[in-house]
Write a structure and sequence with these properties.
single chain; three-stranded antiparallel sheet; alpha/beta; six-stranded mixed sheet; 2 domains; Rossmann fold; globular; 9 helices
Length: 273
């Protein structure tokens, strides 16, 4: 199905230079029996300061597309650029931070030493490492927890530490692969609020993978609805709810209308009858 944009993007976003630009992007995995078309004909532009969510059923290519952006998978057709560079160049330039589904913290390192890891690899001196660690732990609400070990923190706190690690070298782009998917609903709601506040403070460009319609609508400026077999973009929906989004916005007619639009897009893209 052809890709459609349901509402026009904001002029300020449209005028900005693209952070991510994919054109006719394909990815085919060769297997022992038949090739698997993971992505097909992906056309997508993500502008500076946007919060863009990928949503779709399992197997639709959400995480695969995120991994292509991060140079963790190699496309077999089309083109993609990240900050005007190839994904490989962007990776080497540390142009993005990546937050995985699991917090992926080293259990033998304290929280501050986990956050410090990319700074150590990049050669920052001790004083600058400390400044960045303290600033980013405070940003995610973990000031005072730097000397704790991961096993001493809740799952939600561990994910916040993972976000601090991804932000500590000040990337322009944050890639997040279902970071709150394994958490209970109350913790997830709280972290969604905190992530939205963090995005408002930093104005990073965020690309976020989720299975949750309410999460996508609550967080995003645009929602990319994907469909499976092969993975492709079915629809791109603008989410113009403004920057101030308390949790009770989910009960408003505007929120429910966008959620309904996303649900209908998922149903149409999946081919349910």
């Amino acid at each position: 199905m052809s890709q459609t944009t349901s509402r026009s993007t904001e002029p300020s976003a449209a005028a900005a230079a693209p952070v991510i630009e994919a054109r006719n992007l394909d990815l085919v995995f060769e297997t022992a029996d038949t090739p698997v078309h993971a992505l097909k004909g992906i056309d997508l532009t993500v502008n500076s300061g946007e919060f863009v969510s990928f949503i779709g059923p399992s197997g639709c290519g959400k995480t695969t597309l995120l991994r292509v952006i991060a140079d963790l998978e190699q496309p077999t057709g089309g083109s993609i650029s990240v900050n005007g560079m190839t994904p490989d160049q962007a990776r080497q330039a540390r142009a993005y931070g990546y937050v995985f589904q699991a917090a992926a913290l080293y259990p033998w390192r304290t929280i501050e030493k986990n956050v410090a890891l990319p700074l150590e690899i990049m050669g920052f001196d001790r004083a600058e490492r400390k400044r960045r660690i303290d600033a980013n732990l405070e940003l995610v609400g973990l000031a005072g927890f730097g000397r704790k070990y991961p096993w001493q923190l809740s799952g939600g706190m561990q994910q916040r530490a993972s976000i601090a690690r991804a932000l500590c070298f000040d990337p322009d782009l944050l890639l997040m692969d279902e970071p709150f998917g394994a958490l209970d609903e109350i913790v997830r709601d709280h972290l969604n609020e905190e992530l939205l506040k963090l995005w408002a403070k930093t104005r990073k460009t965020v690309v976020f993978v989720t299975h949750s319609i309410p999460e996508a609508v609550f967080l995003s400026t645009r929602i990319v609805v994907m469909s499976p077999r092969p993975g492709r973009i079915h629809e791109i929906i603008d989410c113009d709810l403004g920057p101030d989004r308390p949790l009770d916005i989910r009960d408003t007619p505007e929120f429910l209308a966008i959620a309904h639009q996303v649900r209908e897009g998922l149903r149409a893209g999946h081919g349910y009858d």
